[in-house]
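Section handout, structural biology tutorial.
Before the tutorial, make sure you can parse a SMILES string by hand: atoms, branches in parentheses, ring closures as digits. In the record below the ligand is calcium ion, and the chain has 314 residues. In the tutorial you will relate the predicted structure tokens back to the input. Do not try to memorize them.
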Amino acid sequence: MFMNKFFLPALVTLLVISCKKNDIVGVETVPPSPLSEIQPENEAEITAFLSTHFYNYESFENPPAGFDFKVRVDTIAGDNKDKTPLSQMMQSQTISIDSDYYGLETKEVVDHTFYYLIVREGSAPLSPTVGDSTLLKYQGNFLNGKAFDASNTFIWQYLPFTIRGYQLGISKLKAGLNVINNSDGTTTISDSGIGLFVFPSALAYYNSSSGVIPAYEPLMFTVELGAYIKDTDYDNDGIPSILEDLNGDGILGNDNTDAEEEASAFQQALANHADADDDNDGIPTREEIIINADGSITYPDTDGDGIPDYLDKD
Ligand SMILES: [Ca+2]
Ligand SMILES: [Ca+2]
Ligand SMILES: [Ca+2]
Ligand SMILES: [Ca+2]
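Predicted structure of the complex:
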């Protein structure tokens, strides 16, 4: 598999690495509860949090000298008793989650609410997809206010290896402009996109725990998106990662054309976005597609069976 050193920081940031992580040392899995049992508990916790907390919106509206443009969330009480709660500011989106995603015994599809706030829209014209590599700062918090993970400097993260709520939030932000690499190794980016996301455990680690993050824990993230690589092609097979989401569900980890062949050969299971030979026929995907001069891709289907060559094993 192609692996640019560009992406290594993303790979070692284990805390936001996504669900298929039972093979990561230190991660334990508890017997899973049905989605329909956990969803109402998480939702009640989140709505109570949003109605009793606010963020430093006044500083963003009228930035004081030297303001660091960091989102700070605090309780509505005492001197802050008149602040506007997050519940009146945040937008929400319904995400249907299938129990099969977590391999749960109780078969169901349960609607979950994803909450997000665009604190500052970035000035780049477009947003990354959930399949892109992103340059960002982030902080993850429990709803009791405790931070469990953060990067205060810009780091690269490849979104398909992070949790779903995180991917979803970042794909709503726009990046900044004017990336300046400072002599001390840090990066300064003006007009970056800043967001606040709160989401249920089914969009995070669900029944898995990773030491500091317990199972079934709803999470909050603040993110500053500096830049991203448009049409990131993680496996360098010529097809942008987002176009390797064959079933179009916004999840790149569940499209693996050669899953059976990989399993029977005791190879690592690589989803198509991370697999440079998607059909396991020994011919790299890059040689089974045509990249046109304008950047568009043609997918030849030599035997005319409706399956493009790069996914066709015969
Ligand atoms: Ca998919
Ligand atoms: Ca594969
Ligand atoms: Ca591929
Ligand atoms: Ca192939």
